[in-house]
UniProtKB/TrEMBL annotation:
Signal peptide range: none
Pfam (any one): SpoU_sub_bind
Region (Disordered): 1-121
Record key words, sorted: Methyltransferase, Transferase
A biological process term (GO) from this entry: methylation
Gene Ontology CC: one annotated term: cytosol
UniProt EC number: 2.1.1.-
Catalytic EC class: transferase
NCBIfam families referenced in this protein's UniProt entry, alphabetically: PRK10864.1
Feature: compositional bias, Basic and acidic residues: 22-53, 61-86
The protein's name in its UniProt record: Putative tRNA/rRNA methyltransferase
SUPFAM superfamilies, alphabetized: alpha/beta knot, L30e-like
Length: 368
């Protein structure tokens, strides 16, 4: 049914038509402002055939509106029945969890949300480390694939890691092909080289374990207060190149930093970290096992390494560039060496000095 009101506009009088369903007409038939059914009939006569079409539309909309209302009431009753039935039949119950067992979200880099125990998460993080760099990760996969926990790759490097990807898929290891931004987030650096692994740490070995498997010709490196990861990476690279397997440190874990392993370019996989429970005491244990202790300095060494005959079984001891070796460690030396040069600079970088000295030992003692 239709009502018409008039209002004055800029161009004169304009008719406005209201369309209502028959149900609305019945409820509002007594509304004096609308004029009731008689007024509507009068409006029909004034507007002619157009009102017949509008009235038909009103009845149709009203019918659909009634059906929708009935459907909603029916759906509501069915939902109530399902809820009441499921609450009676469901075997599940809500159980309160103590505060000490509260779970936290662990996004696991980019693999989606999961929930694990906080204590388990802390323990896991202590046992794992992130490495990156193509050569470092290739060497890791070649030598210790079982230590890989998760991996991220740029699309551009995946052809060169085809074997690794197949192995990870077959062994249910999580890996992700991501963009630059996600890989930088996962690795913690922009210098990731297109790949990042989470791996299980190896940890250091004790002196006794190393000595049990040492050969008759063996050079071991000992470092005092050397902690720069890039220097450590360069040192591991030189050690791997010249056949040195053991490195004595006060904290063996520093060899497993991502930056050190990337700088080593795969050399870290050939190095065994040896825990030093007191460097002087550790050097004494090696001496008792037949090793010669060789200390180094840029200014107080007694012999130029270029002229020295280096023993086949020795521990080469180096310190930080600024202060060198402490007096207590220096005094442990059976031989003391320096690297001759022009004197225009005070000393070489510790990783460079390591390479020079290990090259000399290798040339004198290498086996055919």
């Amino acid at each position: 049914m239709n009502d018409s009101n008039e209002f004055s506009g800029k161009n004169g009088k304009v008719k406005v038509m209201y369309v209502r369903s028959e149900g609305q007409d019945d409820n509002k038939g007594s509304d004096k402002r609308r004029g009731g059914r008689d007024d509507n009939r009068g409006s029909d006569r004034r507007t002619g055939g157009r009102n017949e079409r509008s009235g038909y539309a009103g009845r149709s909309e009203g019918g659909r509106s009634d059906r929708r209302s009935d459907d909603r009431r029916s759906d509501s009753r069915r939902s109530d029945n399902r809820d009441s039935g499921s609450s009676e039949r469901s075997p599940w119950r809500t159980v309160s969890r103590p505060d000490s067992e509260e779970l936290i979200n662990d996004h696991g880099g980019i693999s989606g949300k999961s929930q694990i125990d906080p204590e388990q998460l802390r323990k896991q993080r202590m046992e794992e480390t992130r490495i990156y760099g193509e050569n470092a990760c290739q060497a890791m996969f070649k030598n210790r694939p079982d230590a890989i926990v998760r991996a991220w790759f740029l699309q551009s490097v995946t052809p060169r890691f085809r074997d690794a990807l197949k192995w990870m898929a077959a062994n249910r290891k999580a890996y992700h092909v991501v963009d630059e931004e996600e890989l930088a987030k996962a690795s913690g650096t922009e210098h990731h080289g297109g790949v990042c692994f989470i791996i299980k740490k190896r940890g250091g070995m004790d002196v006794e374990t190393y000595l049990e498997q040492a050969s008759e010709q063996d050079c071991v490196l000992a470092l005092e207060d050397v902690g720069n990861p890039h220097n450590l990476g360069g040192i591991m690279r030189s050690c791997a190149h010249f056949g040195v397997q053991g490195v004595i440190l006060q904290d063996a874990g520093i060899l497993e930093s991502g930056a050190a392993i990337r700088t080593a370019e795969g050399g870290a996989e050939h190095i065994k970290a040896i825990d030093a429970d007191g460097l002087t005491a550790t050097l004494n244990k090696f001496r008792q096992a037949g090793y010669t202790i060789v200390t180094t300095s840029s200014h107080k060494g007694s012999q130029d390494i270029a002229k020295a005959q280096l023993p086949a079984k020795m521990v080469l001891v180096l310190g930080q560039e600024s202060d060198g070796l402490s007096d207590s460690v220096w005094d442990e030396g059976d031989m003391s060496l320096y690297i001759g040069g022009t004197g225009k600079v005070e000393s070489l970088n510790v990783s460079v000095a390591t390479g020079v000295m290990l090259a000399q030992w290798w040339q004198q003692n290498k086996t055919e």
